[in-house]
Structures are given as C-alpha cells and as structure tokens.
Specification:
By secondary structure, this protein is α/β, with parallel strands linked by helices. Helices cover 34% and strands 20% of the residues.
Length: 170
C-alpha cells in the first residue's frame, strides 16, 4: 500500500474547536450566505452572522435552563436546519450532544436518555415530546424537554426548514 501525505493548509490552535468556525465566519464575513433554508417553499439565504446569532441565542437559552459544561443534551430529530444550530450551541457551552434517531422506539429513546444521563432533550415534534413525557418518570437526570417544532409530525413530507449549501454564481 502506498501512503501519500500533503502538508496541512491550515493550523488548528490549542483553543479551537468545531464551533470556532461558526464565529470565525461571522467575524470574517458576516454577510456571506453560508446556507440556504427552505421556508414556505422558498429557499432563503442565511448569512454567517445570522447562523452565529442563532447558535449564540440557543446556547444562552441552554445556560438559562441550567445546562452546565459536561452535561449531556439529546437531540431527537430528523436532519433539518435546526439540528446543527442546536448541536453547535450545545458544544459551545461545553456540553455533550447525544443524538437520537427520529425513528427510534420508546424503548430505544429511554435507553439512550438513561444511559447518557441527559439533562435535557430537544424533541422535534409533539409526538416525540409526548413519547419522552411518558418516559420521564424513569429518567431521573432529565430535567427539561424542549420542542423544536410543535406543529410538524414526524412522517410529514414537507419540512418547513430544510437546508442546502448555497449555490455559487457561475
């Protein structure tokens, strides 16, 4: 087997982490369209500054809810625009993201929440939140159930907030 290597074109500083890139983009080019999201059938631009503000706001909300560095926070959701926003917010305050598939059974959800010791969980839909509410009595660490979207059912085909990378001009 042949092995090839190329020198890195970047440097990772001691205090850098995956969330650093969100705030670096905000600082370096706040008006840059970093993603587009589908809202009511229309792809809408989202700038670096808007993404950073959403991450910051979500992080402050988690802090307000008492989430501490090292705490585990679960996300029970399909892939959608809010997923990385919530993930970056969790990581930015030093907590740990615990992903749960949106198709997980009540038993699987219970196991993941119990095994991880999650103190909070983001539930994508009312149906997800209702499942967790039913399990809450067996989850002593779980303090808060937060809802991402209280109007979308898990088997709905039209998510109001799908995301895609922006198209580049030719």
């Amino acid at each position: 087997m042949h092995e090839f290597s190329v020198p890195a074109s970047f440097t990772v500083e001691d205090n850098d982490n995956v969330v650093s890139s969100v705030f670096e983009h905000e600082r370096d080019d706040p008006d840059h369209v970093i993603v587009q999201r589908l809202i009511n059938g229309t792809w809408t631009d989202v700038t670096s500054a808007q993404v950073a503000a959403q991450v910051r706001s979500t992080a402050l909300g988690l802090i307000t809810e008492g989430v501490q560095p090292g705490d585990r926070v679960a996300i029970l959701s399909a892939t959608r625009y809010e997923w990385p926003i919530i993930d970056f917010a969790i990581l930015s305050i030093g907590a740990v993201t615990v992903p749960i598939y949106e198709t997980s059974s009540a038993e699987q959800i219970s196991f993941v929440l119990s095994d991880s010791g999650a103190v909070a969980v983001f539930a994508e839909t009312d149906e997800h939140a209702d499942k967790i509410e039913e399990l809450k009595g067996d989850l002593p660490e779980l303090r808060k159930i937060l809802r991402i979207d209280a109007s979308v059912r898990p088997h709905s085909r039209s998510w109001p907030t799908q995301a895609r990378p922006p198209t580049r001009p030719s």
